[in-house]
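[Discussion] Sanity-checking designs against the backbone

I'm trying to build intuition for which residues belong where. Below is a structure token string of 213 positions. I'd appreciate it if someone posts a full sequence so I can compare it with mine line by line.
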């Protein structure tokens, strides 16, 4: 059986968890905070990052690699198109969302979510980069009805877990959701995905973890 290690507030953890639930793969969860330096963690995730998984064959870190493994090891139901180019487009979109949207907006989280402060220079720089990147994302996001087309894919696992963070963080810092301001109307999509049992489980566990003292 697989063990998913990390914590339920992490969007990258939840991306993997959503895929496992969609595929009805048996797994257990192990709470692991990020940044740990003990050998038990570093032997599985050399930088102490989460998520990582333990499999009968060994451990695996980096969420994209984990999803690739899950898709190959548990092919049904498929979360990637059979056509090579269509599959590459799904990967392209998932990478774009995380690298060019979520990773950029992450610089704002200290102030947006955790009560810290982010310098005005950083806020201005991030906004400029996000506005450029959101315009790019708008060219890739389909919402027809899923982000990559007419089927639920691994790109939806990334989008459902990351797009709301972009919206909430920019709303908190700039007073407006930069996704909505750019015409990326993602909220009906999030509501639709949120009706899936897998997404409901992820959301419930995330909320419970957030409320813990």
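Best answer:
Here's mine. Compare freely.
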């Amino acid at each position: 059986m697989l063990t998913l290690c990390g914590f339920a507030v992490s969007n990258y953890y939840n991306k993997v968890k959503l895929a496992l639930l969609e595929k009805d793969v048996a797994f257990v969860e192990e709470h692991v905070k990020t940044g740990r330096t003990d050998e038990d963690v570093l032997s599985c995730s050399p930088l102490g990052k989460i998520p990582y998984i333990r499999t009968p064959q060994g451990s695996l870190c980096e969420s994209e690699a984990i999803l690739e493994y899950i898709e190959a090891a548990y092919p049904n139901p498929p979360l990637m198109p059979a056509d090579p180019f269509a599959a590459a487009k799904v990967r392209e979109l998932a990478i774009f969302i995380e690298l060019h949207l979520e990773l950029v907006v992450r610089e704002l989280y200290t102030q947006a979510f955790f009560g810290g402060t982010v310098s005005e220079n950083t806020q201005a720089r991030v906004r400029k980069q996000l506005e450029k990147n959101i315009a790019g994302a708008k060219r890739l996001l389909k919402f027809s009805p899923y982000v990559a087309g007419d089927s639920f894919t691994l790109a939806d696992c990334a989008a459902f877990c990351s797009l709301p963070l972009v919206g909430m963080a920019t709303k908190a810092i700039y007073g407006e959701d930069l996704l909505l301001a750019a015409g990326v109307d993602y909220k009906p999509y999030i509501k639709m995905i949120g009706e899936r049992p897998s997404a409901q489980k992820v959301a419930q566990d995330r909320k419970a973890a957030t409320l813990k003292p």
